[in-house]
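A student in our group prepared the protein record below, which I am reviewing. I have pasted the whole thing underneath without changing anything:
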Amino acid sequence: QVQLVESGGGLVQPGGSLRLSCAASGSMFTINAMGWYRQAPGKQRELVATITTGISTNYADSVKGRFTISRDNAKNTVYLQMNNLKPEDTAVYYCNAGIATMISGNMEYWGKGTLVTVSS
């Protein structure tokens, strides 16, 4: 069974930095695109950033120039470096990945989320 486990969330002051990690585990053939989404209280889940197997990246306008997504294919892990954090970045951050397995074929998987709180 495939699992995505996020880590690295926490409380940080405005202007601070955090690095989120998401590790995929289980019986997998390939991991395709990976990404981060977030959901603030009372709001819908929104895209933060994605990265393909070819290391092509895409960012939400609200995080461009502040956040950087990267991946380590050898570790089946995707990262989100978040700099110059703002109170409006406060949300639960979810990891997402397209993964191919023998049993289920190509499917989309989600982590359980990690809370990021930006507050003074």
User: Anything to note?
Assistant: The chain has a mean pLDDT of 95. Residues 39 and 45 are 4 Å apart (CA to CA).
